[in-house]
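lol so apparently i was supposed to do this last week
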Amino acid sequence: MKAQEKGEKEKVAYVVTPTYNERENIRILIPLLEETFESVKKKGYTPRILVVDDNSPDGTAEEVKKLAQKYGNIELLTGSKQGLGVAYQRGFKHVMDKCDAIIMMDADLSHPPSLIPGMLEELERGYTLVIGSRYIKGGGTPDWPLSRKLISRGGNFFARIVAGMYRVHDCTSGFRAISTDLLRKVDFRTLATRGYAFLTTLLYELYIKGAKIKEVPLVFKDRKYGETKLTRKDIIEFFLNAWRIRFRDSKRMIKFAIVGGSGIFVNLGVFQIAKLLLYSNLGQSNGTLLASSLIGDEISIIWNFILNHEWTFKHSTNDSHVLVKMLKFHAVAISSVVINNSVLFFLHTRFGVWDVAAKLAGILIAFLWNYFVNVKWTWREKI
Ligand SMILES: Nc1nc2c(ncn2[C@@H]2O[C@H](COP(=O)(O)OP(=O)(O)OP(=O)(O)O)[C@@H](O)[C@H]2O)c(=O)[nH]1
Ligand SMILES: [Mg+2]
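anyway here it is w/ magnesium ion bound
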C-alpha cells in the first residue's frame, strides 16, 4: 500500500524478469525496456527493473551490474537455480511492498517491451491482470515450427479444460501485468509449483481471488540467443499440476458438503431435543415447532461456521476479521433459514409431509444457496 499512500502520481511498476544464462539477451533487453519507459512514465508509473538471476554461469549477473550502473532503476536478485516458479516468487517477495504493478516477462526477447505501456493502461482501466496472449486475434507464434505450435496449443488447451480456466485463451503465457493489490491476496504457500507450471498455478490463484482479466495480443518471437530452459521435469510438473488444481477446487466443495452434512445432523438432533423440551413444557403448536426449528438452525450455523473457518477455508487469504466473516455467514444463514422454513411450512402444513422430512428438504435447498453465496461473498473466492 505504500506507493498508493503517497498518492496517485507516484505509482511504481516493476518489470520482473527471471534469467538463467541470458547474458546476450539481457544486454539487448534492458536498453529496449529503458526506451519503452518513456511511455510508461506517461502512463503515470515510475518504472523499475528487477532481474532475478540464478547465478548463471554465463555471467548474466555481471552484465546486469554493468547496466545497473548506467541506468539508475535496475536491481539484481541472485540465488541458486530452483526453477522458474521459485525465481518468480523470490522476485515478487522482493518488490511486492514497494510497487503498484508487476510486469512478468521472459528475458530472451520473446516478449516485446513495446507492449508494456498498453498493458499498464489496461490496469489503469480497472483490469487487475493483463495477459500478453498468443491465442487471441492479433497474437501468434510465427517463428515456431508446427510441432512446437501443436505442443504449446495442446498444453494450453489442457490447462484451460482441466484446470477449468475456459475464459482465458492463453494460460501459459509468461508475459503478464498484475496489480500488486491482487497479487497480495495470493497465499504463496498454496502455489507449490517450482518450474514452469508456476505460470498456470499463479494464474489460477489470481483467477480465484477475483482477477479482472484482460488479454492483449502478443506476437511471440523465438529466442535468437541462448537455449531453452524448459526441461522434461517442467513438462511433467505442468500436466500433473493442472489435475492438482482441479482436485483442489473440488476438494473445497466436498469439504463444504461434509461440513453441511454434519450440520444437518446437528440441526436435526437439536430440533428433536428442542421439540421434546418445548412440546412437553409449552405444548405442541406452530409456535413451538418454529421455535424448535430455529434453535436447531442457530446451533448448526455456529457449528458449520467453525468447521468451515478452520477447515474448508483454512487457507483463505481474505483478511477480513473472523467476526465479519461470522456475521456474513449468519446473514447468509438467515436467508437460508427463511428458505428452509418456507419449505418446511409449505410441505408440512400444505401437504402434510412428516415434519422431519419437510425440514430435511428445506435444509437441502438452503444448503446449495449457502454454498454459493458463502464462497463468493463471505470468503470472496471464485466458484
Ligand atoms: N532465474 C531463473 N530463470 C529461469 C529459470 N528457468 C527459466 N528461466 C528464465 O525464464 C524465461 C523463460 O525461459 P525460456 O527458456 O525462454 O522458456 P520458453 O520461452 O518456454 O522457451 P524458449 O523456446 O527457449 O524461449 C527466460 O528468461 C529464462 O532465462 C530458472 O530456473 N531460474
Ligand atoms: Mg523463451
